[in-house]
Queue: 2 jobs
Job 1
Amino acid sequence: MYAEVAVNASAPLRQTFTYRIPEGLNLEPGHAVYVPWGNRTLQGIVVDVTESPAFADARDLEDIIDEQPLISPDRVALATWMSDHYLAPLFDCISLLLPAGFKRRPLTYVRRAFWAEGETGDLSDPETELLRLISDAGEIEVDALKRRAGTGSARALTSLIRRGMVARTYKLARPTVSAKVVTNVRLTHPGTAGKLANEHRASGSKRGLKIATLIDALLEAESLTLAEARRAGLTPSLRRELEHVVSVSDETVLRDPLAGRSYPPRGMALLTTDQQAAVDEIASSLETGSHSTFLLHGVTGSGKTEVYLAALDHALTLGKRAIVLVPEIALTPQTIRRFAERFPGRVAVLHSDLSPGEQHDVWYEIRNGKYDAVIGPRGALFAPMPDLGLVIIDEEHEWTYKQQDASPRYHARRASEELCKLTGSVLVLGSATPDVESNFAARHSSRKLLSLPSRLIKTGTGMRPAPLPQVEVVDLRDELKSGNRSIFSRALSQGIESCLAAHEQVSRFINRRGTASFLQCRDCGFTPDCKSCAVALTYHEPESRMVCHYCNRRYAVPTTCPECSGPRLRQLGLGTERVEEEVRSRFPQARTVRWDRDTTKGRGLHEAILARFLAHDADILIGTQMVAKGLDIPAVTLVGVVSADIALHLPDIRSGERTFQLLEQVAGRAGRGERGGKVIIQTYTPDHYAIQAASKHDYQSLYEAEIGFRQKLGYPPFGRLAPLTFAPAGRDQAHQESARVTQFLRAEVDRLGIPNLDILGPAPALIPRIRGRWRWNVLVRGADPGALLRDVTLPRGWSIDVDPISIV
Ligand SMILES: [Zn+2]
Ligand SMILES: [Zn+2]
């Protein structure tokens, strides 16, 4: 028998390698194994077991790491699908499924080889010195040796190895994380021990008193660690003497991130008619045991979480378990609380802010079936949850579900759908502002649309329907005309003042993603677009040109506005710090907190800032996107959006959709309490369809505008995109190499006769330089970019992002 193995090699490879399975070893997909690799041993995961080898000269697989398969076959299939769909190395995809600390670094050791004494005569000084170091150490890891011997030792080492004086061996680094084991000492027969202690105390001997003290300590504590027991007087001889009443054993301690937190249990809420209808649909799907996907479109505050909880409750009665995804780690505490109150002790949390030890333990506990649901950001999708029946993605439109900065560049929503197909599970996508593509799929495919059209607010006794907050759009062009150059319009200033006077809370939101600079007319709000790609042009300061970063078309900067002939075409951009400064000088009496990535770097800071605001320890909350996402702060009556334009003019096809989503989510923060709420949006382009739709909470009109525009240009969901990015250190190399690859790809499209596929670019990336590397993009747009890219091997330094959520 032969095994196809994905190997944890340093070179990322998309394919598997064939090994012969030694007699007596029973392997199946998902087993973790050791395999030979050159002259070293590496770790791998069995992907397939076959009777005939895919490769004739297969070597013997070395050993199995664990008797039990580490990953279930359906998860192995998921990794294979991801590797194929996202054109990513297979082991990168499998890595997502592995427990923390599993991957071990291959290390090279050297030791002195046997040699005749006289042969060392002609060694150079560095070689002699190095040989002495190696001899003294016995066996030493190469990197440690080089650190000790200093620069220049690499050459001496190579020479010693070549002359056969030093031999190499290969090992894997020790695991960085493993189960935490504590040695516990406890009494096996407390009654007998108690009597024994009394007898010894009565004897009055020194040794007798020692024994009595030790037993008393054990009686009091029930169990002591070995160190504590030693301090209480335990010695090896006492341990032998008390063998019949004292046990010493190694026990695994669970590192539980939720330890010490208690959630008072809460019963099921009474559902509204709409909620109940949604739950019924999901429940009947769960009962069929086959895959289906639901899009739960519920306006902000419509009680989507109650639907999730009831769906999970139903899944549990069927003996199934669930995975619940939230957009950000910052939001997990709130969600955990809602789920843990309803299902005490049955909910796990899994995310990268946990210590490696906690991640390791939670992973194994989930696999062993200790929990019924796991909650976390996108990576929690890969938790080894057995009996999976339900996957819930809250705020499914959020961009954080896409992994952008590392391979595989997967989207958790798409990957969930695949996992649910493989496991026969039900997928529930929830949002107040569904992704345009999700909504399209719900209308034109087998997905089912569920809706919660009315907002509910808490009253003293229960919930009652309430209107969505009123939205006022302030035209910043008018402010400028009337001489107001502050970042606050008159309406927003007055709003904040009256809130402060009434002791109500204000949350204000600015979008700082605006790293690209674009030009906007201060008189009419006009922003220049690329004529062929319909994305905002990026202003390049040094050459004073406007550039389309999709297709690289360049435009001269007009001296006057093409729309209104006004003279003020300017750059825009605002940061949270600047807004905070202005708020402090303008409203010195208000207590202000800032919530963005810079102020929430440490563990637990998210919770601390939120708690402070919830306790009304601050009057004004200033923040970026995070403020917008799902936080329920009842006392907020006014939300101000300082500038809607930065999001609107990001050079991206989804900027309109994105702006609408942000504004709706931000508006959703206002008026959750009984006092109602108001939203003020400041903009230079009040007539833009995304702003108009947001001001009326009109998702449908936004959706129709977006779909029309995308169909015209062949953008998703009508076509697919795959940007290739090249980021070398040299500026000229970046440009020349991307031009060469673009030509090559165009020729391949012709040669293979692939229909409906365009190659756009090359163009400098939106962020043209990151960490000293010049970035260029080539954009593949069409029905199936994989038809071209699956068989193309790109040179080193290129990365592919299949189905990107933005092109940067
Ligand atoms: Zn203008
Ligand atoms: Zn263009």
Job 2
Amino acid sequence: MAKKTLKNVTVADAYLAILADRGVDYLFGNAGTDFAPMIEALAKAQALGTPHPEPITCPHENTAQHMAIGYYLVTGRPQLTMMHVNVGTANGMNGLLNASRGQTPMLFTAGRTPTNEDSLKGHRTLDIHWTQEMFDQNGMTREAVKWDYELRNGEQVETVVDRALSVMMSDPKGPAYLSLPREVLAIEMDEVTFDSPSRIQPASASNPNAAALDEAASVLAKAEHPVIITNWGGRNPKVMPALVELAENYAIPVVEYRNRFVAMPRHHPMFAGSNPNPFVEAADAILVMDCATPWLPSQVNPPEDCKVMHLAPDPHYSYLPIRGFRSDIALAGSSELGLMALNAAMEEPAKSNKSVIDRRRKEIADKHQNLEEIWAKKLEAVKGQTPLHPAWISDCIAKISDADTIFSKESQLQVQYLDTSKPTKILNAGASSGLGHGMGVALGAKLADRDRLVIGTHGDGSYMFNVPVSAHYVAAEQEIPVLTVVFNNQKWQAVRGAALALNPSGYAAKANRPPLMYFSVDQHYEKLVEVSGGYGEQVNDPKDMLPALERALKEVMVHKRQALLNVSASDPT
Ligand SMILES: Cc1ncc(C[n+]2csc(CCOP(=O)(O)OP(=O)(O)O)c2C)c(N)n1
């Protein structure tokens, strides 16, 4: 088996060399005094031309974490971020929570303040080295990671890196946290030898248990009113073809509830919209696939005799403290493999149900046609509205994009107007709804695929959560121009909706502008992108939307500089 040997290195040198050997392309970082040995190691690797994850300077941790997520969503490879001790870890928590609930394999690392007061290389040299020490720095992250550890010495670097990566990359995937004490990173070693490639590989994706799968296949095949509900199934690009085949073969409607990706092309006749309620209340079989919350029990529940089946690597979502959805059959395995296996296993039992399936095919296609008409009518009704309606903004965006465009979604972008015929193009990393994810995701996606058009869409509230000065800076520095569209409704509509729903005739409902939801200053976000040399425009007239997008597109694709449109937007109705 192949081995590699490094001579006269520090622990930091060895750590970076092993990560690069394992296919980690970038280190998304926000540095501090704890980074001293890491910076020396990176500079050495750059000077000598030895393999290392390329450092990307992120002025805010939120940018770093979400760039890692965006890069993963496009490449499928494990990611690396590094922050400054406890404080950088705290700033990175929003991204970590999104990575955690989004099952993203990200090695989130941070330095640890030196513990030696005056001995050992790397010892304390600043007052903050006392005040930044915590009894349990890793504890902050523990509830959100699959694994955490603190690097103790140079001899264990390979084991620690491989343990982190193999745990992260095994299903259900997820982040890990590693703290890196300054003195340990600075240790000098005569020689480090490691396996290349690694001898610790992640677990392969698994097929669900065969007997349970047959049972599920029989229930689904014989059902009269089955439905498939998913949320993030579309994150895996192989799910779309498998799901389309299953839905087509057996005429099963697919609902994407609160979806963060797209598993079913929006114009497919078996796409049944995003509202599970009418399907759930009529169902005799429900397959919930990659979806922690398939419906709201306060609104709807399946009939008593309806069989509910779940398909996911961890179909009980054990990371969630409370989840009481019925689970008659729980299929533990990869959704892609599970869907393909169901497709094959349903062939035989479906034969006796052929007439029902044929009739249903027509019913579901009619329902879908109805959706198409609703979408078209809506667009027609709102296209001249001022402020601009999200449907019109989305339709104009559709005209300058195609099936290969990548979208980062943190806005009221209406996906049904876009070309969703190809998998994994709408990326919404807000699995924990930690706002401020979209700009980093767009940048990470563009870094992973520089030739593609990447469009980031954000509400004005979300845009500000992104620490936009940090994101625009990285776009300029790394020459990764993204087209950003801000749906500016001058408020936090989601907060408004929740407040008014709880107390429909309360004081907030009667107030002209209830507190803590409106932005009363007219913010010129189009100028913020100019700080980093980008192109910005404000759009107030619906007739200007498409021409403005075309100008912005030219800036991004031809002149290779980022662009931002600050669009005066209404709320979707
Ligand atoms: C880090 C974080 N803080 C607060 C929230 C709560 N929150 C959810 S939606 C929302 C409003 C977002 O505003 P905007 O992006 O403008 O979209 P709108 O709701 O107006 O369509 C807020 C503040 C959150 N999800 N994440």
